[in-house]
């Protein structure tokens, strides 16, 4: 069976790369129909490329970001359509980042675009049950339309490495300064831990400027955005990796890439205690939870793992075992692959 991976997606982006790799590892052939050059031209290019392969696949997966691409998919393909929604643009722009006012034309447009994209798809994939339930709160859709596909991480790129020997304890975070991520809480935790021989690597061009916080007395090392493999190299040098800590609704419903990547690297993870995280992780077994939006609790948990090396190593080992058993590309896409095979065979 052949899958057409379709859209204006970045094939190197973790979500897209893992889906394609995992589906191939589960015995499906994946061909790509992708265009990224030009604001409007890419859509014409996408249609032209699809015309050449229109008879060569059985099921189409519209990759992230697929809000506009699925409209073309519906117009030009008669094959089953699966949309990897990944997240709601309405939630991201209006509710989480609050870049757009809730009563503006742009906000209504984003809501309509999310709803239309999901409505046009035969099935929609999201990363957690909590995220699926959140979509059902935002949009008039049926739960049967959705499939959960965890994000996972690439075990061929990320492998466990021991932290180097040094005279201080190192916490790592990579991302951007959005409400979801809660970088401000990490910086406040760093301030609370200043003087305790704990340093922080914060990786991302926009973190320092967007967070608008001082360097917490010099125990924060701001690092520019790095190519993915260099980022993984930096991450594997840490003693503990940090997830997300925001107090927005979106924090409650997603498990970010960085958590899966830390598990794959065999690192102890601290992240906010949320319904989404509890779908996968167990507190004090394969991660350490802290209260969302609580810098002091985060600081306490970082200190706890610094002072208890045995607990830190056990959590890291259990997290890696969880990853290898459930979160490699083949594992996270196995259910989707089986669904595709059965779904296609049931269609006339």
Automatic annotation (TrEMBL):
GO terms for biological process: lipopolysaccharide biosynthetic process. It holds the Pfam family Glycos_transf_1. GO terms for molecular function: glycosyltransferase activity. Keywords: Transferase. Residues 167-321 form the Glycosyl transferase family domain. Coiled coil: none annotated. The keyword Mitochondrion does not apply. It comes from the Bacteria. Signal peptide: none annotated. This is Glycosyl transferase family 1 domain-containing protein. It comes from Candidatus Falkowbacteria bacterium RIFCSPLOWO2_12_FULL_45_13.
């Amino acid at each position: 069976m052949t899958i057409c991976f379709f859209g204006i997606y970045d094939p190197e982006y973790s979500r897209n790369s893992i889906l394609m790799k995992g589906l191939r590892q589960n015995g499906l052939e994946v061909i790509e129909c992708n265009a990224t050059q030009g604001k409007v031209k890419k859509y014409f290019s996408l249609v032209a490329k699809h015309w050449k392969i229109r008879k060569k696949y059985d099921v189409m997966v519209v990759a992230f970001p697929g809000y506009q691409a699925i409209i073309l998919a519906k117009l030009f393909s008669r094959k089953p359509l699966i949309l990897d929604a990944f997240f709601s643009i309405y939630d991201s722009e209006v509710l989480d980042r609050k870049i757009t006012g809730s009563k503006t034309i742009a906000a209504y447009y984003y809501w309509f675009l999310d709803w239309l994209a999901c409505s046009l798809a035969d099935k929609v994939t999201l990363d957690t049950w909590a995220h699926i339930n959140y979509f059902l709160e935002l949009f008039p859709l049926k739960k049967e339309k959705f499939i959960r596909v965890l994000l996972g991480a690439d075990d061929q790129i990320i492998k466990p490495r021991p932290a180097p020997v040094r005279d201080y304890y190192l916490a790592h975070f990579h991302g951007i300064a959005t409400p979801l991520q809660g970088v401000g809480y990490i910086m406040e935790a760093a301030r609370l831990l200043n003087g305790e021989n704990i340093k922080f690597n914060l990786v991302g061009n926009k973190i320092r400027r967007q967070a608008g916080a001082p360097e917490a007395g010099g125990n924060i090392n701001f690092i520019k955005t790095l190519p993915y493999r260099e980022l993984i190299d930096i991450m594997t040098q840490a003693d503990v990796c940090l997830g997300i800590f925001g107090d927005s609704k979106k924090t409650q419903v997603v498990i970010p890439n960085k958590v899966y990547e830390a598990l794959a690297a065999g690192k102890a993870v601290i992240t906010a205690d949320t319904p989404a995280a509890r779908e996968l992780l167990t507190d004090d077994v394969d991660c350490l939870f802290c209260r969302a939006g609580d810098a002091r609790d985060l600081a306490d948990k970082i200190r706890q793992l610094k002072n208890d090396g045995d607990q830190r190593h056990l959590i890291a080992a259990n997290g890696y075992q969880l990853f290898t058993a459930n979160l490699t590309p083949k594992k996270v896409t196995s259910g989707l692959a089986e669904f595709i095979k059965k779904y296609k065979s049931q269609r006339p």
